[in-house]
Structures are given as C-alpha cells and as structure tokens.
Amino acid sequence: xxxxxxxxxxxxxxxxxxxxxxxxxxxxxxxxxxxxxxxxxxxxxxxxxxxxxxxxxxxxxxxxxxxxxxxxxxxxxxxxxxxxxxxxxxxxxxxxxxxxxxxxxxxxxxxxxxxxxxxxxxxxxxxxxxxxxxxxxxxxxxxxxxxxxxxxxxxxxxxxxxxxxxxxxxxxxxxxxxxxxxxxxxxxxxxxxxxxxxxxxxxxxxxxxxxxxxxxxxxxxxxxxxxxxxxxxxxxxxxxxxxxxxxxxxxxxxxxxxxxxxxxxxxxxxxxxxxxxxxxxxxxxxxxxxxxxxxxxxxxxxxxxxxxxxxxxxxxxxxxxxxxxxxxxxxxxxxxxxxxxxxxxxxxxxxxxxxxxxxxxxxxxxxxxxxxxxxxxxxxxxxxx
Length: 385
Description:
Strand order of the largest sheet: 2-1-3-4-5
Strand content: 15-25%
Order of helices and strands: EHEHEHEHEHEEEHHEEEEEEHHHE
Largest sheet: 5 strands, parallel
Mean pLDDT: 89
Structural class: alpha/beta
Number of strands: 15
Low-confidence stretches: none
C-alpha cells in the first residue's frame, strides 16, 4: 500500500472545516482532491469528471448522502466508484444502511488520519483491480467480435441463383462465434454443392475447427472437379487431413454434403454422421436421408459411401443441425424430430419455410438466443430450369 499511486478523490461534505482537513491530508499524499459543499453539487461533479474514490458525508442540505449514494449506484457510469461514508459515531445504523446500499467502507468523526489513508488506499487498490478487470473484459469482447466477423467471412456472402431453384439458409449462433457452418457454391461443370456441418464443441475452439473444416471441404471439392474427379471425395479427404494432423484435439464434425445436378434434379450425397436430412416431396410425403459414414475427423481411413436420390419439380431438400431438434423447452423437453416434421409447411417457399421453423424453435425454448447453434439449409426445385 505504501507505493499506492495517487488518485482523484471527491470529498462531499457540508462542513467547511471537514472539507479543509480532508483535502489537506489527501493532498499531502499526492492525491488530486475536488470538494463539494452538498450532495447535489457532489453528484454533478461525479457526473462530469472521473473519480477514483468518493468521501461522502451523510447529513447535508440540498441532497443527503443516502440519496447521493442511491443515485451513484443506479448510474452505470458511476456505480463502480468506491464510496467511503463519513459519519458520526451515533449514526452507525445509518452507516450499515449505506454499506447495504453499496458503500465500500466508512470513517467516523473525528477522522483518524491513519485510518483515512488506509481506507482510501484500499479503495484505490480495489478500484484499479476492477478497472483492469473491465479493460480485460472489453478486450475479450473485442476479440470475440473480431472472431465473429472473421468467421462470417467463411460463410457464403450470398447463395447461388439457379433458374427454377431456390437455395436458402438460416444461421443463428448461440455465442459470438459458432461451430455450425454451411456453404453452397457452383462447380465448374455447373452442378450445385450444398453442405452443412456441426463441430462437436463450442466457443473459439469450435469456430477455428469450423473454419478449417469448411475451407478444406470447399478446396478439395473444387480441386477434384477441376481434375475430373468426384467432388464428393472432399469428405474423405477432409477426414484424412483432420484425423492425421489434428488428432490430438479429438474434435470432429458431422457433415451433410450434397451435389445436385440442376438440369436433372439428381442428388448425390454423403451424410457423415449428421442429423438425418429430410426430402419433402411435392405431394407432402417425407423421406429421410440416412447416414452413409462416420463423423469427419474422428478416425483415419473412414469409409464414406455415396447415395443418390432425385428432386422432382415441387420437391425440397431440408438439412439442419442438432440445435434444431435438441432445443429444449424450459422444462427440459426436446423440440424433437417429430415436432420438426409437424412444423414443416410444404406450402411455403424455402426462405419462409426456414423462418417458420426458426420462430417455432425459439418460441418453444422461450429464449432470446438458442442454447446451441441453430443452422438450416433448404434447396427447393420449384420449376423446370
């Protein structure tokens, strides 16, 4: 405490004698002191200037110390300034009331200079620790926001436009950064790639892994297409890369990866451990696209088989992450696949379809933000190309 740096101190006391004594003692220790003659003036000073500590008398004209303390603690900019109450010994019940209201400490009159400096130094130390903590939190928020913006760059800025087709997506992260991802892009041969993934983790680690996985899938798919190979090999190639080079993290992703021929409606897909996508036929029949391999990144030499289906005019393909079906109500019940199927409305277009499901999930959970990332992708063939 002996090397405690000086601070800016506001003394609020209607006694000129007390103000003089306090200011002189504090000035001797290098503190900058501002004095106010009553509570209203003191509150005005505190609103206009930054202070490290406030010494506050209780019984004053214009505005007493209780009111000043209440207003200080109700103001987001001033509530963290430590307040030391100055009181006569017979006002101890009032001091307790002030401590309950948020005052840091108290001094009794006549003021002992040793106690004065000890209490002021203790308050300065606590405030500086709080200030450092706040600065650290602000820095963390900045880093998370930077991470959120960088992650957004890994998601498609706009989805492909194909005559006779609608591609729509919904992405609601549970935190600043997410582990879910989606993508849709056109290959050199004009086929459409649609993919959706979910990393088995949360926070910054999941976001980094998401960026890696999505980038590998797209790069391998585009390279395979340019070389005349099957772009669906991108799933196996991504699995090998992650399982061999990032095995220590034990992080993996479930992935649904589909290639669609817009001219014929043929869909080839790999479902790597992902929640079962749904094919909604024009006549409202529902078909499920089951898994064709394990999650990506879990084991080397994993086998992924390719399945084929077809989207006729009026059909739509709907894929989602488990943040949809595993969303929980306040009593812990899952939204469930059954409730999802009951929410699907084939009469809606793709984007409206996703909006309806998203609203239903959030209403079910009664939360402002989802507990887990919520991501959906729909491909609707509404007419002949």
